[in-house]
Amino acid sequence: MKMPHAIFFSQSVCGEVISGKNGGGQGGAQWVAIRIVTLTVLPGYTSIKNYLIFQRIRERSMFQLRPGCLAMVIGAQTANGRGNIGKSVELFGLCQPGERMLNPVNGVMTELPRNATRALWLVIGNVTAFDGQHGFAFVRAEHLMPLMPDSQPQDVLERVID
Questions:
Q1: Burial classification of residue 64, based on how many CB atoms lie within 10 Å of its CB (0-12 exposed, 13-18 middle, 19 or more buried)
Q2: How does pLDDT run along the chain (162 residues), one tens digit per residue?
Q3: Which sequence ranges are marked TM in the entry (predicted)?
Q4: 3 state SS of 54
Q5: How far is CA 151 from CA 54, 79, 108, in A?
Q6: Are 80 and 130 in contact (CB under 8 A)?
Q7: Cβ proximity of 103 and 122 under 8 Å
């Protein structure tokens, strides 16, 4: 099953972020694909290239996330959160249920309710929180894909299609 989550455009680049799950039940592997199309127009030369970047998300992906690392938002539960899909963010900290954390963007002490069902990452960047505040958001670990340029070759497959 594949589900397009976000489409982004600029003058010479457009793309989409797609994620899904192979197989059913607990054993299915999660994946995300980023399709980017570049257009180069020069006098007497035009080039269109498609890049498909594919990454399988392991069940242990939460342990690949560390404060200070970059990640891409690939999923969301709220309407404001869905606007963050496809954006890169910096991970500030993992907030456990009942834990208090100082928000670096607005200086407010934030406490995740003790009865929360899971820990959430406080991320900073060009994102919007569930209540419309700009510059930070709380995101589930499974909705983040680490952006690691030093990752193992078997983790990322890149194909160039002319």
A1: middle
A2: 444 445 544 445 555 666 666 555 555 555 666 666 666 666 776 666 655 555 555 444 445 788 988 888 888 888 888 889 888 899 999 999 999 888 888 888 888 888 888 899 999 999 998 888 899 999 999 888 888 654 444 444 444 443
A3: 29-48
A4: strand
A5: 13, 31, 35
A6: yes
A7: yes
DSSP state of 12: S
Q: Which amino acid is at 86?
A: G
Tell me the pTM.
0.58
Residue 73: alpha-carbon gap to chain centroid:
2
